[in-house]
Amino acid sequence: RTRVSAILEDGDALAGQRAVVGGWVVAGREQGRGAFAFLAVSDGSCPAALQVVVEAGAGAGVPLARLTPMGTSVLLEGRLQRPPAGSSAERVELRVERVIEVGEVDAAAYPLRKSMRKPENFRDLVHLRARTNTFFDNNGFLQPMITTSDCEGAGEIFQVTTLFSQGGGTIPYKDDGTIAFEDDFFKRQAFLTVSGQLQAENYACALSSVYTFGPTFRAENSRTSRHLAEFWMVEPEIAFASLQDDMNCAESYIQYLCKELLEYCEKDLEFIDNKFAESPTAIQCLKLVSSTLFERISYKQAVNILKGVEEGTFDKAIEWGIDLASEHERYLTEKIFMRPVIVYNYPKEIKPFYMRLNDDQKTVAAMDVLVPKVGELIGGSQREERLDILKKRITDSGLSVEPYEWYLDLCWFGSVRHSGFGMGFDRMVLFATGLENIRDVIPFPRCPGRADL
Ligand code: 4AD
Ligand code: MG
To answer: Which intervals hold domain Aminoacyl-transfer RNA synthetases class-II family profile (predicted)?
Structure first.
C-alpha cells in the first residue's frame, strides 16, 4: 500500500504510476447519474484526504452507492493522475481500476456526522473519533489503564475500587477492621487493563497502523520464572494486514531489536555475559536471532513433533487441544529447530474471542513467537472482522456482549482486515540479558504474594 501522505507529498512525480490505497471514506458522492463516484479517502497518515475517482464498472460488481457513505473502508488499486484541466481539484488523484475490498457502513446508524466539529461532539464516541482528522498527528498513542472489558477474556483481571476518605484524610475502617469500599466512582465495575489491544484496534481502523506501549496487569496465579502481575507490553496493530503480514512484522521487529542491542549495548551485554556466564551466552542468542530466518509451523505440526519426543521428557503430556507449556516451547526452539519458531493456527478453545476463525472452524489465525530460553515472547493474531462471527465468539467464550459493544462498532462500520501482536517488554529484557527469572529484570516485580517493596 502507498500511504496517502506519500502520494500527496510527491504528487506530480507519481502521476502515471499504479498504486494501492487503503483507508476510510470521509466524504463521498455519486455523479453523472451514477457514472462516477468521487471519494475523499483518509488513511490517517496525514490530515488531508486523497481524491479518488471510481467509474461504474471498476468496482467488479460493487455498486457505487456502497462506496460513498462516510466511514466505509476501501482497499483500491488504480493509477495516479493529475486532475483534468479545468477541474477544481489541485492535487494528484487516484483513478480506480479495481476495488479490492470494501467494508460497508449503514449510513443511518453511523454516529459520526460531517457537521460535528467540536471536540465535545466526540466525547462519547472516543472509539471512533480517531477517524476525524482533528486529534492525532502520529501513530503512537497511550492506552488507558482502567477499562471495563477483559481483552483476553480469561478473567485474570484486577478490579479497581475507590477507597473514599470520609473527611480529615482518615481511612474508612469499619468496626471489624476491614475497609469500606465504594464502587460508585465509575458507576460500574472497572478493571486494570490486561492489554491495550482493543483500543489499539480502534485507532488502527482509522490511522492504518498504530502502536501502544504501556503497563498491563494480570491476576494470573502463575508462579513461574516468566510471569509478572504487572508488566509492560508493546502492541502494534495494522489495518489491511493478514496473519502472514503479522508474522513478518513480528519477525523483523525482534530481529531489529536484537541488532540494535548488539550495536549499541555491546559493553553492557559483555558485562552481563561475564558475570553470569552461561551457554549459550546472551550475545550468542542475540546474534543467532538477529541473523536467522524464524521457523514457521502450525500448531498441529508442533503437537505432532512434540508427541514424537521420547516419553518422560515433559512434565505435561501434549496432545491436540492443549496449550503449549513453556517446556514445550523451549524444546521446539532449543532442541528441534535451534532458532526462534512461530507457531500459528491454534485451536479456538485455547485462544481469545477476537482471533479470526479459520475456514476449518476449529482453529483461529493466531501466532506465537517462541525464542530460546524464554519461550513465548510475542502473542498475536489476525482479528475477527466479521460482526456475526465475533458476536458468537464472545458469547461462546462465556462473556457478556455488553462491555464489548464499542468494540463491535469496528466491525459494524467500515470493517477491515487487520492484525497485531503484543510483545512482553520484560520478556524481551529477559531474553536480551540471558537471565533465568523475569523477577530479576524489573526493578520492582509484582507477582502472587508480592505487592510491596
Ligand atoms: O499473548 P498475550 O496474552 O497477548 C495479548 O495480550 C494480546 N492482546 C496482544 C496483542 O495481540 N495485542 O500477551 C502478549 C505477550 C506475551 O507473548 C508475553 O511476552 C507477554 O505479553 N506476557 C507476559 N509477560 C510477563 N508476565 C505475564 N504475566 C505475561 N503475560 C503475557
Ligand atoms: Mg499468549
So the answer is: 210-443
